[in-house]
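From the shared-data thread, chain only:
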Amino acid sequence: MDDMENMSSMRSAPPSRDQLLAEKLKLDKEQKQQLHDILMAATQETAPLRSQISNARVQLATAIIENKSEDAVKQAQAAYSNVAAQLAGIEEKTFAKIYAILKPNQQPRASQGFELLATMFEQPAGRGRGDGAERGQRGERER
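Structure, as tokens:
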């Protein structure tokens, strides 16, 4: 093995989204397990919505690019908005569950955790930028 391979094998994998959130909130071992369980349930709940929102984006973009009627564009926007609202509802419910496991001294960090949580359900783990920039840019376009 050469030096480059040695260095490459010594690098650890980047922390998972659960780990990043647990670190931000300064969770103990029991809370980390609870967090993991909450996030797994939410990920399963959002799985069908992620493909729906992706399809809705494609339909909206297609309607705009192909100069479809105003009604067709509004219909595509409504479909996208409906799925986005469902995802937001799951994010909020998940955040409430996470907040409920926090100790009083951890609660002031909750808003930082919510910022990270808000990017978790848009794409499956390991995909996308994960830094929230894409979400922020899209949020500006949607207004």
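Confidence is low (pLDDT under 50) at residues 124-143.
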